[in-house]
Amino acid sequence: MRLGRVESFVSTNLGHVAGVSEPYVTLPSVPYLAPPGSATAGSLYIDGRWREARNGRVREILNPADGSVLTIVSEGGRADTEDAIAAARRAFDSGEWRRVSEDERGRLLDRIADLLQRDREEIAVMESLDTGKTIEEGRIDVDDVTDVFRYYAGLAGKDAGRLVSAPEGVHSKVVYEPVGVCGMITPWNYPLLQLSWKMAPALAAGNTMVVKPSEITPVTTAKLVELTTEAGVPAGVVNLVTGSGPDAGAPLSEHPDVDLISFTGGLATGRRIMAAASETVKKIALELGGKNPNIIFPDVDLDTAVDYALAAAFFHSGQVCSAGARLIVHNDIHDAFTTELARRAEAIRVGRGQDQDVRCGPLVSAEHRAKVEAAVARGVEEGARIIAGGRRPDDPDLAQGYFYRPTVFVDCERSMDIVQDEVFGPVVTVERFETERQAIELGNDTDYGLSGGVWTNDTARGERVAAALRHGTIWINDFGPYFPGAEWGGYGRSGIGRELGPAGLDEYREAKHVYRNLAPEPQRWFG
């Protein structure tokens, strides 16, 4: 579908429903998304064609706003993943894709970016329905994905290698080649964005791939795969298997024909992937989340700092690996800060992502909401005190969805599970500090190290604290922005490797040293 406005999209699908500010919508009619109630679905894309799973199984994809069935997709298994790996292997080993010039690969990436913008409103609605985020957040995702493809389109072919200083009579150079077949396992919270961080540099470098999205949010992944085909990416280069992690994802880590695994998701799954990948000693790139500190010094404008703290903690209902879920606030402003934080948190509108003025949509599933509720209960047991939220919304119109109110904990101590463990929901904890040194110690007191924020009007202090924090991204007087040209990744248990930036391209390349003796002569080394 080619649509310029979200109103055009929704008007072709379903009508208005009383009491909501925008109409309920359904997904577009496309080959890879079957309507609710279907017994078959063709959401696997292998060697240039859409097909059903070999086992014939399907999965219902639920709308987290009301628990209804959104669409039906194939439930692929090991045999399907092995088919996809074989297709990617053939496409790589044939050399046809590698022979495509780097400039032409760059033009392909630019065409994908153009198609993303052409279908921007459609994709934003698809992402909203599938993940629960607001349509505006979906639009932001599409624009960010477009920027990522444009960035790597510009980077393709710009680094042909380098000459190495060598003795007279020797020509020495380092060249870069694609890794080979890449397995890409993506999370449910940002299925479109996280795939772009992997797919764009992998294509720019000349790799082939098998994509395994989260089994509960595969919709926009299938859409992006469709757009790569429309842009002209050859058959077998991009392959898609929808299904569960154990059945469809695990073979990617284990299979000897997969050269690299890139995974974004939870720590426990990351550990299993590392162990499986070690059997064939394949390259790995892991982004495993964070428990991210947001440090507030007393010299900032309180109104502004509270505003940013709310967005940092509750954007996408807190289902963000870099969420500012751990506020560390100076004693001098703690009480005023938390009072205002709680007041504004209680005023946040929770609702369907397609409704106007909603800031927090539903959590992704009933199971995930249960995990968030269990974490909140543990926090209370540990002695932390709730001053906002801590409950499901009272609105009966939201009772069928997986909603949870933005929640603020105070009286928190660094030893508490609610402070140390990644909740991955609309929950923020607040700790106190007195000195700069104490703030740094608290900020680094985590097994993770993905991101963090520092709020101060003292430029020197901001730089000192940023330098001392052991996290992959530090924002000073902001929280959350990233750029395609700046590396993203974490310290400690937040993962291995970097995405985005030049390093993100290097993850998908092998460096090869080529040494040429310009005038070989017998050495007579044997006497």
Structure report:
- This protein has 527 residues and is an alpha/beta fold.
- It has 2 domains: 10-34 and 41-289 and 498-509, Aldehyde Dehydrogenase, Chain A, domain 1 (3-Layer(aba) Sandwich); 293-447 and 451-476, Aldehyde Dehydrogenase, Chain A, domain 2, CATH 3.40.309.
- It contains 17 helices and 20 strands.
- It has helices at 6-11, 78-93, 96-99, 102-118, 120-131, 135-155, 191-205, 219-231, 245-254, 267-278, 302-314, 331-347, 366-382, 417-420, 436-444, 459-468, 501-506, and strands at 44-46, 49-51, 58-62, 69-74, 162-163, 170-178, 181-185, 208-212, 238-240, 260-264, 283-287, 293-296, 326-330, 385-388, 407-410, 427-433, 451-455, 473-476, 495-496, 509-517.
- The chain has a 7-stranded mixed beta sheet, sandwiched between helices.
- Strand 12, helix 11 (302-314) and strand 13 (326-330) form a beta-alpha-beta unit.
- Helix 4 (102-118) packs antiparallel against helix 7 (191-205) and helix 6 runs parallel beside helix 7 (191-205).
- The radius of gyration is 24 Å and the shape is globular.
- Residues 1-24 have low confidence and may be disordered.
